[in-house]
Amino acid sequence: MATIQELGRQIRLDSFSSTARKVWASAEEEARRLNHGQINSGHIFLGLIKDESVIGMLGRLHIDQQIIRDNIESLLEQKSREVPQTIGFTDHIGNVIKKALNETTRRKNIIITPIDLLIGVILEGEEITIAALKNQEQDTLPSLAGKIRNFIDNQLLVEAREASIRDRLERFLRNPNVNRSTMDSTIEILNNVMDLAENPKQKPESESSA
Predict the structure, then answer these.
(1) What is the pLDDT of residues 113-132, one digit of tens each?
(2) Domain interval for residue 40
(3) Residue 56 belongs to a domain
(4) Do residues 110 and 147 share a domain?
């Protein structure tokens, strides 16, 4: 059994986002609440389902976080022993961190997020993770991780496109040769584009009136 301090020596604390550090803190609280001397994937999962980004992702996947909590707590037996001051973690947690770090590297990022930890827990595939998702997810764990990756990649793509549009618009509006009429027309077109993006089934007026 390794300790949290040993984990910290392997991976710098600033490698985690502030929300990911909160997940770790929540996982340790869950372990101490149950009088467990080490953190396992179940405790991490309990910490993850308190994070808003993870709750949102599970919602997209139609997975109920309360059912996850109930399933995990039915397996994590509360101990009567005293918890040591320095709490440790199982070998599986080291693997979870490595897998989460791989996800961060795949996105060419340097910060581990709660979603990266979620993918790490899923890919590690411990029995408690399988039990947590029991009767909610029919896909294999790698397939479920793939779905989460796709959601994240699509979200990043949309954000990049929006940033590009904002940058071009700001440069356009700063152009002294642009007259007011052209500016108003451009803004109207952009508003229509954004409306269609938010409501893809909505047809333009010219098409619907034809």
Answers:
(1) 999 999 999 999 988 888 88
(2) 2-138
(3) yes
(4) no
Which DSSP state fits 137?
-
Residues 116 and 152 reside in one and the same domain: no
**CA distances from residue 50 to 61, 139, 200 in whole angstroms, order as listed:** 16, 23, 32
Nearest to 118 by CA among 74, 73, 151: 151
β-strand pairing of 38-39 with 2-3: unpaired
According to DSSP, residue 88 is labeled E
Task: For the beta carbon of residue 81, count every other beta carbon within 10 angstroms.
Answer: 8
| Contact call for residues 55 and 114 (beta carbons, < 8 A) | no
Q: What's the first-to-final CA gap in the chain, in angstroms?
A: 71
Separation CA 36–CA 89 (nearest Å): 10
Closest residue by Cα to residue 30 from 18, 20, 40: 40
pLDDT score of 50: 95
Q: Does the pTM exceed 0.85?
A: no
Domain boundary pick from 107, 138, 169: 138
At 178, give phi and psi (nearest 5°). -85, 125
Domain boundary among 110, 138, 166: 138
Residue 135 CA: distances (Å) to CA of 26, 67, 139: 25, 9, 11
Q: Which two tokens stand for residue 157?
A: 């793509």
Residues 6+ positions from 182 with CB-CB distance below 8 Å: none
pLDDT at 6 over 70: no
CB atoms inside a 10 Å sphere around CB 161:
11
Q: Is the residue at 210 inside a domain? A: no
Q: Are residues 61 and 85 in the same domain?
A: yes
